[in-house]
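Cross-posting from the chemistry board since nobody answered there.

I work mostly on the small-molecule side, so proteins are not my area. We synthesized pyridoxal-5'-phosphate and want a rough idea of how it might sit in this target. Sequence and SMILES are below. Is it possible to get a predicted 3D structure of the two together?
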Amino acid sequence: MTFISMDDITSAQQVIAGIADQTPLVPSPFMTEHCGGEFLLKLENMQPIGAFKIRGAMTAIAALPQDVPGVTCFSTGNHGRGVAYAAAKRGMKAVICMSSLVPQAKVDGIRALGAEARIIGQSQDEAAFEVERLCREEGFVDISPFDDRHVIAGQGTIGLELMEKRPDLETILVPLSGGGLAAGIALAAKTIKPSVKVVGISMDRGAAMHASIKAGTPVEVEEFNSLADSLGGGIGLDNQYSFEMCRDLLDEVVLVTEEEIYRAMQQLYYEDRIVAEGSCVVGIAAIMSGKITHVKTPMAAIITGRNLDMNMFTQIVSGQDLRLGDTVIKGQPYGL
Ligand SMILES: *Cc1c(COP(=O)(O)O)cnc(C)c1O
């Protein structure tokens, strides 16, 4: 099935040492009480770029020859930040291509990391064409956000860290988009402990991996504005790694609504004092809404990133209604 092995993940761990942090794994008393057993949070929001993507990007860029003219990618933001950061660490030029749906805070963040941010079109697919052109005409190397063996191995180091620290884990909740994160974590964790359950969670509108697993082959889905904006985008019709790995290694894939994500963002803030993107709280949202079958503890949720628009976040924590593209999420103060 897979061309990626545990050896790739253990060598990635050495490559990223000193660049990506071994993030804390902390208990959530509120979720522990709710689940009746230990619930842990893996704080990837504490990484230098504010998200786990630094792991995969550094692993992939470290594997390149020094003489490539530059690296590029299309990204909803965090992968772009990871590539920008890792390229700077290696003294390489980076051009990050993204769609106009990407929040301004993420665009600014990438520019601050020293990379060029190029805005193209309304969807990640259009941004992907510009990446293709840069590679074809200027010799850049495209770093895939999820469908690359080095990227998957890099993200998999999270699974390694989890199981090294807590070999007794029974369930891991992983936000799911292109599936590089879930594929890497599932491979690492299940190699160490085959009985551990790994659950992927996405938003219910535009969940490409969920639709693809259901269809039995990679399919395209319409894109929507979502509080979980880091989970948007397709998995690629020519997907080589992450589709098969997620199909074969995930025990369950669950979808949550925008309202459930909204409430989980409030909860993580008020109960655990953590500022996190909508994309990070989908696991908590799925547990709170009773959608997950594998609720065996100890359980860990990956808090994947913190790069969000703070105006939107303050609206959410104060319980205001929120406009998202063509829909309005009805807000209410936390605890009511
Ligand atoms: C990229 C990303 C994900 C999803 O990772 P995939 O490998 O695409 O499934 C989840 N959360 C955040 C914050 C991300 O940036």
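Reply from a structural biologist on the board:
Welcome over. Reading the output above for you: The chain has two domains: 6-48+148-329, 54-142. The longest strand covers residues 197-203. Happy to explain the token format if needed.
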